[in-house]
Amino acid sequence: MKVDPDRELVERARAGERTAFDLLVARYQRRLLRLVLRLLRDPAEAEDVVQETFLKAYRALPRFRGEAAFYTWLYRIALNGARNAILRRRQRSAPQGVAPSQLPAPVPEIGTPESMLLSKQVMLAIDAALMALPLELRTAIVLREIEGLSYEEIAQIMECPLGTVRSRIFRAREAIARRLRPLLDLPVDKRW
């Protein structure tokens, strides 16, 4: 098992040293914001979720057992906050008589002008493909490909078996590849 690089700061923060927790916030704030923003696509909402994450972490710090690395615990809190934000958003926008779970996930529109470069179109297509994925697949692929976390770390954060993480990442890659094939003019049997 890896040694938690945050252990000393966590212990100091648990002992009441406010600057130690401030250092943890400084270390992870941008990463969490990037992650949550990728999931929610609303900067103000993402900032609220990240702020709420640190507040919850600070309050729960005395109960943090250290069985997982601090950052995986923090990411888990942030992901739960993002899930809750998505549920609240769906409940607000649900038509009368329709359960929020019956609504499709929101997909951003892609309005690519003809003059844009292919790379810009590809980035927009990847973004749209990510947003079209179910939350579990989107979370897994963002943690792996954008945050660069290992499969083991993702399994801890998402609280699921390693095989499930591998399956989610595979399915996410396949779904993204399907959406990119027409844009990249690739044969059906080739991913990239």
Could you name the key traits of this structure?
192 residues, Rna Polymerase Sigma Factor, Chain: A, single chain, globular, mainly alpha
Write the layout of secondary structure elements.
Layout: H1 7-14, H2 18-40, H3 43-60, H4 70-93, H5 118-132, H6 135-146, H7 151-158, H8 162-184
Helix pairs in contact: 1-2, 2-3, 2-4, 3-4, 4-7, 5-8, 6-8, 7-8
Question: Could you please describe the fold and organization of this structure?
Answer:
It contains eight helices and no strands. It folds into two domains: about 5-95, RNA polymerase sigma factor, region 2, helix turn helix motif (Rna Polymerase Sigma Factor, Chain: A, Orthogonal Bundle), CATH 1.10.1740; about 110-185, Winged helix-like DNA-binding domain superfamily/Winged helix DNA-binding domain (Arc Repressor Mutant, subunit A, Orthogonal Bundle), CATH 1.10.10.10. With about 190 residues, it is an all-alpha fold. Helix content is about 70%, strand content about 0%. It has helices at about 5-15, 20-40, 45-60, 70-95, 120-130, 135-145, 150-160, 160-185.
